[in-house]
Amino acid sequence: MDTTFLSAHGMHYGCLDIDGFDPEALLGVVKDARFEQRLLGPGYFRARAQRLVFPGFSLDRGTYTQPVLAKGMFAPDMMGLALASHCGEPMWLNGQRVREGQLMVFSEDREVAVRSVSPLWQWVVLRIPRSSLQAAVFARLQRELPLPQHGWRLCPRTADDNLKLKMCVQFVLQQAARWSPATSMAEASMLGELLLDAFVDALEGAAGSHESSRHLGRLEQRERFLQRAEAFLCSQDALQYSSRALGCALSMSERQLERVFHDVYGMTPKRWHQVARLNQARQLLLDEPRACVTEVALRAGFSHLGRFASEYRQLFGERPSDTHISVNKAKMSH
């Protein structure tokens, strides 16, 4: 479809289908941000990334078929409003459990670490400058709403899990996908206004609800612990996992470590370390087509090649040799 006229006025819709887990393709699924992603659940991965851009703000929606861990941050001049529009089980964000339909509000330049649990996961992110968001709030409500100056805020669940907002996002994306040379500026702009109004209504519904400072302190403490644990395990990528070494580094018992990792990641620290090394191996195969599978396995810390191939296939739904062949074929075709 040719929508050059709309693009010239800052309006654009795009859709990208990703077949097979590709961290590079997933890096930019949120506009002007970088989210490093790691596959956590077994099976062949597919995703659809949709983007709708209006003058001054944008909407991204991702639909994944397998659980992932995503880490990154929003642009320093943009706030983020997000929700999981579909997740059968609660996801985890910065150490906190988040249910389907719960609105999340992020201040500018906020780091985000999110883990999905459900095999089918769909998320939505609206990026908008603080001043533009408050202007939209005032235009609709004739007053401003409190927004976090730092960090992020998880809004409480609503009775209908923000069904109106989810339906609005679905409708707006469906209509934008049909944009054509015949679409007028007024029609396209109306979709943007409809979208902003729906997010403002969801924000208003959550206004006045705040977590206690004690609860927020516990969450921040857990988040710092997870960051230290991940940093230690990543520094041990090519080494065998040692629960004793991890416990000593974090001054925590093995039982406590197991409980926290099960709560937040749905797996033991040992499994987390193994999954991290498997993702590292896939990244090496994608980045270095000339490297042989054996070399990649050894660099990622796997000494038993048969076990490596089996574990790789279980996680990614294909053998490491299949990945190697497909990457080289793609390179030759270009």
Structure description:
A hairpin with a 2-residue loop joins β3 and β4. The strands form two sheets. Strands 1-3-4-11-6-9-12 form a seven-stranded antiparallel beta sheet. Strands 2-5-10-7-8 form a five-stranded antiparallel beta sheet. The mean pLDDT is 90. The protein is built from twelve helices and twelve strands. The chain has two domains: 4-210, Sandwich (Jelly Rolls); 215-333, Homeodomain-like (Arc Repressor Mutant, subunit A, Orthogonal Bundle), CATH 1.10.10. The chain has helices at 4-8, 23-26, 130-141, 163-176, 185-206, 213-235, 243-250, 254-265, 269-287, 293-299, 305-316, 320-333; strands spanning 12-19, 34-39, 46-54, 57-64, 68-73, 79-87, 91-93, 96-98, 104-106, 111-115, 121-128, 152-154. It is an alpha+beta fold and 334 residues long.
